[in-house]
Design a protein that fits this description.
Blueprint lengths: L7 E5 L3 H13 L3 E5 L2 H10 L4 E5 L7 H11 L6 E5 L4 H10 L3 E4 L4 H18 L3 E4 L2 E4 L4 E4 L2 E3 L3 H13 L4 E2 H9 L6 H15 L8 E4 L3 E4 L3
Parallel strand pairs: 1-2, 1-3, 3-4, 4-5
Antiparallel strand pairs: 6-7, 7-8, 8-9, 10-12, 11-12
Helix pairs in contact: 2-3, 6-8
GO cellular component, one term: cytosol
Pfam families: Response_reg (PF00072), Trans_reg_C (PF00486)
Keywords: DNA-binding, Phosphoprotein, Transcription, Transcription regulation, Two-component regulatory system
Length: 229
């Protein structure tokens, strides 16, 4: 796992002992974790924040894992890899989970190392499935060469302004909060409050200033988005 960009997981599990064991192992391996103890809380977090993988228990209060999976596939702006975590080992249950949009299935009890390997495999699969070209309006980002063009003109960006643009493009048209940007850029490391502002300024200077139509919009009190014409 890339230490500069740790993977962010949402664990939706109402069994505190299992959640604690998962936390101890995965955090020691460099993952960043959020937790939900019922299906509704898990759904709300998954739709609000960015996660590389959602580890989703099947039997949950308020909304069960099947309902959460179904609603995520309907409402999320991107495909979020979902790993179902359950005591049910019957084939019909697994088929139902896959039909509702689960990407993988792990039966309790499980080895923590296997959970880790399955999460990493889902992340790798997600990266391979994504196109290396992202286009929003007249901006094209090549994630393989890490180059950017706008209106067929090359745009030179430093590393962090490029990463900010890539995140905003991947999440377009959703507003990306300041806290989410900081989390994805710097992880849990303490960050100067002016650092993000400085990189946004550099991005706007390169991407918006030479053109008539600005693309980066500030949603005051929330965050930033790419704004279509």
């Amino acid at each position: 796992m890339n230490k500069d960009h740790p993977l962010h997981l949402l664990i939706v599990e109402d069994n505190s002992a299992i959640a604690s064991n998962v936390a101890e192992h995965m955090e020691s391996r460099g993952f960043i974790l959020d937790f939900a103890t019922d299906g509704q809380q898990g759904l709300d977090l998954a739709l609000t924040n960015y996660y590389d993988v959602v580890v989703l228990d099947l039997m949950l209060p308020k909304l069960d894992g099947w309902d959460v999976c179904k609603l995520l596939r309907k409402q999320a702006s991107r495909h979020i890899p979902i790993l179902m975590l359950t005591a049910r080992d019957s084939l019909p249950d697994k088929i139902k989970g896959f039909e509702l949009g689960a990407d993988d299935y792990l039966t309790k009890p499980f080895a923590l190392q296997e959970l880790e390997m399955r999460v990493l495999a889902l992340c790798k699969r997600q990266q391979l499935n994504q196109s290396h070209l992202i286009q929003v309006e007249d901006v094209i980002i090549d994630t393989t060469s890490k180059t950017v063009s706008r209106d067929e003109q090359a745009i030179s960006l430093q590393h962090l302004p490029y990463e900010i643009l890539k995140i905003l493009a991947e999440e377009h048209p959703r507003v990306v909060t300041r806290s989410e940007l900081c989390q994805r850029l710097w992880g849990d490391e303490p960050t100067d409050s002016d650092a993000l502002r400085s990189h946004i300024y550099q991005l706007r200077k390169a991407l918006d200033k030479p053109f008539k139509q600005p693309l980066i919009a500030t949603v005051h009190g929330v965050g930033f988005k790419l704004e279509a014409k």
